[in-house]
């Protein structure tokens, strides 16, 4: 239960960075922290004490297997998170080239 709470705290730290920070790089880091918190939650959700891999074998009983669905979702989330991060960094670089700053308030004032 404590690990789920710590995962929630990590997500809230990322959400705080997204909502309150005015620097584009810090906002991107907040999004990355939120993505990692979700991946950590999926890994914690799928964990079983003394669990075994979800590979079927005719000689073994199907007991105490780890659920493979959260693992597949975490892998998919990692790939999507990487693509999202690359896109956000690319957009941030283009904004910096055009406006010369990463500060959102200064970009709003320039309007051009």
Describe what you observe in this structure.
- The chain has 112 residues and is mainly alpha-helical.
- The protein has one domain: Helix Hairpins (Orthogonal Bundle).
- Helix content is 72%, strand content 0%.
- The chain has four helices and no strands.
- Helix 1 packs antiparallel against helix 2 and helix 2 runs antiparallel to helix 3.
- It is elongated, with a radius of gyration of 20 Å.
- It starts with a helix and ends with a helix.
- The model has no long low-confidence stretch (mean pLDDT 89).
Per-chain topology:
Elements: H1 2-20, H2 24-46, H3 68-99, H4 104-110
Helix pairs in contact: 1-2, 2-3
What count of structural domains?
A: 1
Q: Strand content of the residues, in percent?
A: under 5%
Helix/strand-derived category reads mainly alpha
- Can you tell me the overall shape? elongated
- Any low-confidence stretches, pLDDT <50, length ≥5? none
Whole-number mean pLDDT:
89
Overall helicity: over 70%
Which H/E pattern describes the elements?
HHHH
Number of helices: 4
CATH topology: Helix Hairpins
How would you sum up the major sheet? none
Radius of gyration: 20 Å
Distance between the termini: 50 Å
Counting DSSP E segments of at least 2 residues, the number of strands comes to 0
CATH architecture: Orthogonal Bundle
Features:
112 residues; mainly alpha; Helix Hairpins; 72% helix; elongated
């Amino acid at each position: 239960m404590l690990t789920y709470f710590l995962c929630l705290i990590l997500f809230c730290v990322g959400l705080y960075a997204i909502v309150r920070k005015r620097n584009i790089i810090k906002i991107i880091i907040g999004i990355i922290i939120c993505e990692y918190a979700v991946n950590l939650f999926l890994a914690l959700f799928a964990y079983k004490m003394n669990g075994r891999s979800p590979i079927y074998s005719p000689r073994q009983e199907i007991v105490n297997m780890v659920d493979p669905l959260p693992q597949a979702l975490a892998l998919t989330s990692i790939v999507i998170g990487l693509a999202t991060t690359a896109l956000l960094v690319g957009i941030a670089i283009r904004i910096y080239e055009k406006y010369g700053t990463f500060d959102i308030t200064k970009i709003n004032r320039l309007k051009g």
